[in-house]
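Subject: complex prediction, re-run

Hi both,

The earlier run crashed halfway through, so I resubmitted it with identical inputs.
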Amino acid sequence: MAQGKVDALLGIVFGDEGKGKVVDYFTPRYDVVARFAGGPNAGHTIIFEGKKFVLRSIPSGIFDEGKVNIIGNGCVIAPDLFMNEARELEAAGYSLTERLHISRRAHLILPTHRVLDRAYEAAKGKAKVGTTGKGIGPTYSDKAARTGLRVGDILDGFTQKYERLKARHLQILADLHFTDFDITEEEQRWLEGVDYMRQFRLTDTEIEINRYLAEGKSVLAEGAQGSLLDIDHGTYPFVSSSSTTAGGVCTGLGVAPNKIDKVYGIFKAYSTRVGAGPFPVELFDATGDRIRDIGHEYGAVTGRDRRCGWVDIVALRYAIIINGVTDLVMMKSDVLDTFDRIRVCVAYEKDGVRTEDMPYDTEGWQPVYEDLPGWQTPLTEVRSEADFPPAFSAYIKYLEDVLRTPIAIVSVSPDREATIIR
Ligand code: IMP
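This time it finished cleanly. Structure:
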């Protein structure tokens, strides 16, 4: 952590890498914690002082008195869901209004964006993305089309702007013959949420964050989703609609590339994916079920089963390059404790063609594996590298060699102390 710099903490595969735990571990060192992309499609589970919280839009530094938390311009916010989340924190005794700053340039998710999300998915038939249904895609579409509503609009001529955009959405829904919705109640809550948001610091966080950096403060950019869900670099069209990679830190917060210092790339000792889309390492057998059961791989937002597979070097290597990862963080290593053989996907193969580079179209590629011996020893009580079973040390060494990037942190159980710095 360097003064006057931004460190980024990013999930580098398909999200759900366990960022919540790492952010929780990291935040005490930073002055400012900022979210730069995504919205309530995220679900960061944080256990703080024995209580469990799922943060969706609010940065994870919110539990700490002295920290500034920023929801950056690259984010999208649903006022009703934001209100629920904030009230829950307030009820638990955390005061937010001074500590949470929201960019006026962040975009608002309207109730009709959520209906559009459903309508577009329904229209796609078999090619569904399997979205979280939170209106993410339609909101970013309006942003790109220059028709969106921003947080700053809450403060100026809001009703008229809202009604205009809503009418536009209703017209699109009528054109699609999508009638399966009634937003009356939801809209009431949403408008209440808009009112509720007015008490927060709705400000130019882009200027603020640069002022903090000039004063020598340290900033942690907290990622959401994962690199392979990035709108540009992910497995398009099976992606989310924001820039989840390191470039998104710059555009989503208004910080220059030369302000970024460390880029921590978080991955699990195996792979998971929620929703549709190519996933070459997916296991359809009992091994996949076993990883899901032991790793509790069910979605934090939608409760869906996560698809599971072995670690994917092709994907990781690609994400390391795209993000400029300086340090890797390996999560949930203990989930593999009981396996006698650990497989590692080192390349993809299709029609006799082998590639170690992420292909343009990941559909139809088969994984090429190398096998390593399992450690078959419980890791959850291990607190120091000296106590790693030799086969686990060999797994780490193998990954570091093929990824040419150090694994700086290893997590061996959900406990805060089970985080081993190497
Ligand atoms: P959307 O972000 O709701 O539009 O969903 C697009 C794709 O991203 C779907 O496959 C979702 O399952 C996936 N996705 C969105 N947010 C997350 C997340 O926080 N973790 C994992 N997958 C996510």
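The mean pLDDT is 95.

- K.
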